[in-house]
Design brief:
The chain has about 240 residues and is α/β, with parallel strands linked by helices. Helices cover about 45% and strands about 15% of the residues. The chain contains 9 helices and 8 strands. Strands 7-6-5-4-3-2-1-8 form an 8-stranded parallel β-sheet. β4, α5 and β5 (about 130-135) form a beta-alpha-beta unit. α1 crosses α2 and α4 (about 95-100) crosses α5 (about 110-125). The protein is globular and about 45 Å long. It starts with a helix and ends in a 6-residue tail after the last helix. The structure holds pyridoxal-5'-phosphate.
Length: about 240
């Protein structure tokens, strides 16, 4: 064992129970069943040792935000015992590679990308599970559909034969104002409710909540939280 393995392993001994407890507490406070909230451990920016430690700690849903890095990890670990989540912006020319590597794509942020993913998945064995990324915060720098534009786009994607639209995803603004975060997340939930009553082909998943806002996200109905820093520590800044 290298020292890095020991340090990720030791870290997770503390952080996995702590994150699980936060999820538990938030679900409980919201009167929700904790089983409804899935934890995606975001291993982006961390080496294989972090993945080794995550798997040893029983974390099986792992998130990556860069295509090449995901491919390296998928090549090393395979896709039998890990559910790979692509959570970062994808250039549409890389759609084929993503459809191959990921079990679920959270970051579908354009119709062009959706069409390419759908076509790639049609050539493979099964429809690709996707979430449509919404920009509920109105911040310019972020990817994702504005809600009204997104409503139509989700319905269009739900008709694409290579895609299984499981739900929606958003990233909150980096803002510690609980009111802003709460309305970002409740906005996503309301949009999801409207979409589900419009189409049976739109699933109920809500991927929202990161290290800094997971409790608010769970209160507002998150079904998937994407947690990096609270589990693995700070990433190297690029
Ligand atoms: C990096 C990232 C996360 C994890 O963020 P932390 O603050 O480290 O928990 C979640 N979602 C997306 C889309 C990310 O890029």
């Amino acid at each position: 064992m290298t020292s890095a393995t020991i340090s990720y392993t030791e870290r997770l001994t503390e952080t996995v129970p702590a994150v699980r407890e936060s999820i538990n507490d938030a679900a409980h406070a919201a009167g929700r069943n904790v089983e409804e909230v899935r934890l995606v451990a975001v291993t982006k920016g961390h080496p294989f040792e972090a993945v080794d430690a995550a798997l040893a700690a029983g974390l099986t849903d792992l998130g990556e935000n860069r295509v090449a890095e995901m491919e390296e990890k998928v090549a090393h670990y395979g896709s039998e015992s890990v559910v790979w989540h692509m959570i970062g912006h994808i250039q549409s020319r890389k759609a084929g590679r993503v459809a191959e590597a990921a079990a679920m794509v959270h970051s579908v942020d354009s119709l062009k990308l959706a069409r390419k993913l759908s076509r790639a998945a049609e050539e493979g064995s099964a429809p690709l599970n996707v979430l449509v990324q919404m920009n509920t915060s109105g911040e310019e720098a972020k990817y994702g559909f504005a809600p009204e534009e997104g409503y139509d786009a989700v319905l269009e994607m739900s008709e694409m034969t290579g895609l299984n639209v499981r739900g929606l995803m958003t990233m909150a603004p980096f803002d510690d104002d609980e009111g802003v975060l709460g309305s970002t997340f409740s906005g996503l939930r309301k949009l999801s409710e409207r979409l589900q009553s419009a189409s049976e082909q739109v699933g109920p998943e809500l991927s929202m909540g990161m290290t800094n806002d997971l409790d608010i996200a769970i209160r507002e109905g998150s079904t998937i939280v994407r947690i990096g820093t609270a589990l693995f520590g700070e990433r190297d800044r690029k």
